[in-house]
Specification:
The structure is a single chain. This protein is an alpha/beta fold and 295 residues long. It has one domain (3-282): TIM Barrel (Alpha-Beta Barrel). It has twelve helices and eight strands. It has an eight-stranded parallel beta barrel, surrounded by five helices. Strand 7 (220-225), helix 11 and strand 8 (262-264) form a beta-alpha-beta unit. Mean pLDDT is 94; it is low at 1-11.
Length: 295
Amino acid sequence: MSFRNAKVMHLTGVHHKDLSEKALVDLYNETLQAGMHGLCFSPYEEGQKPGDQLSEEQIQRRMQVIKPYTKWIRSFSCTDGNELIPKIAKEHGLKTLVGAWLGDDPEINQREIEGLIRIANEGLVDVAAVGNEVMYRKDLTEEELLEFIYKVKEALPSDIPVGYVDAYYEFAHRPKITEACDVILSNCYPFWEGCHCEYSLPYMKDMYHQALHAGNGKKVIITETGWPSQGTSLQGAEPSDANFMKYFINTQRWSKEEGIEIFYFSSFDESWKVGAEGDVGAYWGIWDKEEDLKY
């Protein structure tokens, strides 16, 4: 669905222009306190980046901060200390969607896959994700990714669903990958497609239903969605505190009303993300980089 088509759809959800600033903040905090299905775990402190070694202490501290607000945690890697996240999440009574981060380095890929298999066989994985946006980045061929997916499926207990994470549209474009997945793990970002926040809820719903249609009856989990609170606008998509809160409220309401399993992106602001995403990359967190709630 194009942004132009989204504009003619019936609008739903909260529109901050109808609320005072205080009323919006109050509604946001009420929604946050009610809890959410899932949250993407941001482990990196200021000055850290992927590839740096994570400590058990920092994971424990951040898990303690977010655990009252979510039932599930999503992790992105099984190396460099990330392999501690599922164990610590389980200690805090949380369920886990655990990812192996695949890229263009065969040695790292092997370590990631071995780590995911080991962690899952230790009983620490509720859903396994083999790769994140690998097709989008063109880091592997479709055949290489399929080999990893089937390797993990063969090595895991049959009651652990195995999937692959990518943008919602990739599952229609790549039927072999969709067929290999037990569950469709779909990233849905109206912001990155330049959608005005006012139309973002129906836009995201359409993204979800495209993934659902591509999966031909398979369960779809939204593994990432969110809105930045600061940074440069992208076409009609404007980062702001008000848009951040409104998008979060609408996402959580839809999740609860229709039973949609969503992992919100993200828990904490992380400055390293500006390299890949521009200035907005550092401002997707519900908590800031100092681990304080923004609002």
